[in-house]
UniProtKB/TrEMBL annotation:
InterPro entries membership: GlcNAc_PI_deacetylase-related, LmbE-like_dom_sf, Mycothiol_biosynthesis_MshB
Gene Ontology annotations of biological process type: mycothiol biosynthetic process
EC numbers on record: 3.5.1.103
UniProt key word Cell inner membrane: no
Cross-referenced HAMAP family: MshB
Keyword Metal-binding included in the entry's annotation: yes
Catalytic activity: 1D-myo-inositol 2-acetamido-2-deoxy-alpha-D-glucopyranoside + H2O = 1D-myo-inositol 2-amino-2-deoxy-alpha-D-glucopyranoside + acetate
Recorded name of the encoding gene: mshB
Protein name, per record: 1D-myo-inositol 2-acetamido-2-deoxy-alpha-D-glucopyranoside deacetylase
Pfam families linked: PIG-L (PF02585)
Residues the record lists as binding Zn(2+): H36, D39, H171
NCBIfam families named among the record's database cross-references: mycothiol_MshB
Organism in which the protein naturally occurs: Micromonospora costi
Function summary: Catalyzes the deacetylation of 1D-myo-inositol 2-acetamido-2-deoxy-alpha-D-glucopyranoside (GlcNAc-Ins) in the mycothiol biosynthesis pathway.
Length: 325
């Protein structure tokens, strides 16, 4: 498919060309806000690949370079924050390769690459770094995201819940920034019509614990009850289930692109190989803003994040501040 204005081919050296008008983009436009490179793949990779393959414009915004991440490639150990401190730059390339695998051609770093630094895990001294995303001024950071919203006019936005899914400070901050940006954009009349938060149904977690019981790579070892996990959503609170099992291979390829963060023997690959159709190819969301569209099953889960929205391009009715909750 030929480039559209504003799309960025993964791996290109030249700066991205911004769109001059939203009418140049497809009717369906999806914006994702993630904290670090690899978060997009692990949490929403199948969804991104699904909508990109279907012709939607998928924009990924990553808030940091992931400078404080672990390194699972021994020959790259010297890139660590405590050594050469070059991991963030290296991960830009990993993210570009992952986006290419997912078919996503529009990727941005919030405020530009390196504007905000990976804060590390909660409670570490790295939380206090002057460029740590955890320390970012909320309105300033949200303002960067509003500019992207103004350009792309996405109907749907995906980010994390209030706890950042599992409590990482950068995930929590990404949530705060995204939701503040939605408020600011709503005041101007161009906020996304729907905002989803990533989620994992308790029934899926319970099935995973059962599946891994006898596995040497059991990620649930020592956990007796899903209630002990820092994440997990009751099934009745889930709003959408995106079945992208046909994009299973794309998500696996994107995972392999993040080699410094996902070791080759990770339990994620065990999932992908044994029962990936359900645990890798299917992703779940709660609905934080907007009206739920038609769904199916016992809880009427949507199978399309655009459910209930008219595909009418830029002339759609905007969300106003009153529509937020």
């Amino acid at each position: 498919m030929a480039d559209l204005p504003g799309r960025v081919r993964a791996g290109r050296a030249e700066p991205p060309v911004r769109v001059t008008g939203v009418t140049t983009l497809p009717d369906r436009r999806l914006l994702l806000v993630h904290a670090h490179p690899d978060d997009e793949t692990i949490g929403t990779g199948s969804t991104m690949a699904h909508y990109a393959a279907a012709g939607a414009h998928v924009t990924l915004v990553t808030c940091t370079l992931g400078e404080e991440g672990e390194i699972h490639v021994p020959e790259l150990a010297q890139l660590a924050a405590a050594e050469a401190d070059q991991l963030g730059g290296y991960r830009i390339g990993e993210l570009a390769a992952a986006c290419a695998a997912l078919g996503v051609t529009d990727h941005r770093f919030l405020g530009g690459a390196g504007r905000y630094r990976d804060s590390g895990m909660m409670g570490l001294a790295t939380n206090e770094h002057p460029r740590a995303f955890w320390q970012a001024d909320l309105d300033e950071a949200a303002g960067h995201l509003v500019e992207i919203m103004r350009e792309i006019r996405p109907q749907v936005l995906i980010t994390y819940d209030e706890n950042g899914f599992y409590g990482h400070p950068d995930h929590i901050q990404a949530h705060r920034v995204a939701m503040r940006a939605v408020e600011l954009a709503a005041a101007e009349g161009f906020a996304p019509a729907k905002v989803y938060w990533t989620a994992m149904p308790l029934s899926v977690l319970e099935a995973g614990m059962t599946e891994f019981t006898e596995s040497a790579d059991n990620p649930f070892v020592g956990i007796e009850d899903v209630a002990e996990l820092p994440f997990g959503t009751p099934d009745e609170q889930i709003a959408a289930r995106i079945d992208a099992t046909d994009q299973h291979a794309a998500k696996q390829a994107a995972m392999r692109a993040h080699a410094t963060q996902i070791p080759h023997n990770s339990w994620l690959y065990a999932i992908a190989g044994n029962f990936g159709a359900e645990f890798i190819g299917v992703e779940y969301y709660t609905l934080a803003v907007g009206e739920k569209g038609p769904g199916s099953g016992p809880y009427a889960w949507e199978d399309d994040l655009f459910a209930g929205l008219p595909d009418v391009g830029p002339d759609r009715a905007p969300v106003t501040a009153a529509g937020l909750r």
